[in-house]
Amino acid sequence: MTTLPSLLTRSFANFVEGVAVAIPRLLSGLIFLALAYVTVRIVLSLVRSSIERIYIGDRELVGDLIVTLVAIFLWFGVALTFLKVVGMGDIAASLGTAVGFIALGVSYALSEMIEDTVAGVYLLRDPDFNPGYRVEAKGVTGTVAAIELRKTRIDTDAGDRIVMANREIESRWTHDVPDQES
Q1: pLDDT confidence of residue 177
Q2: What does the alpha-carbon distance between residue 123 and residue 107 come to, in Å, rounded to a whole number?
Q3: Given its phi and psi angles, is residue 11 left (phi above 0), alpha (psi -120 to 50 degrees) or beta?
């Protein structure tokens, strides 16, 4: 039978050995986080400045969406790499796989919202579909009042404001060009 003092001595030695192994990993992780923070901030500022030149005025919402998505991917990559640096590579691999399956489920559940958003980006980029233009979409004729990422607002001739999902408009709409009299 092992005596209590030798068991305590061995436990304490194992604890000290574990701490000695963990300290360099933890320091490496902290240095990595500091460098990653600076790098991500620089990359996001470059992405934001590039996007701001492309998406100006009422299209800034699309640019903000793109910058947010880039930030999410960068920070997720930093988190997984940090786990690998501190010696938890198996946890990082499991977390990456789990998040992939969760993202698949969320994208399926939000498929109509994602479809609206993608259609909104196309509508915002279309030079023939802007606020103030007369259009006909899904049996509604009127003036485009606002284009957002998920919805478009159209003011009808009767004075009503119709709010339609972008996926319904983007698939089929007509620019109402007035007749030119000579």
Answers
A1: 60
A2: 21
A3: alpha
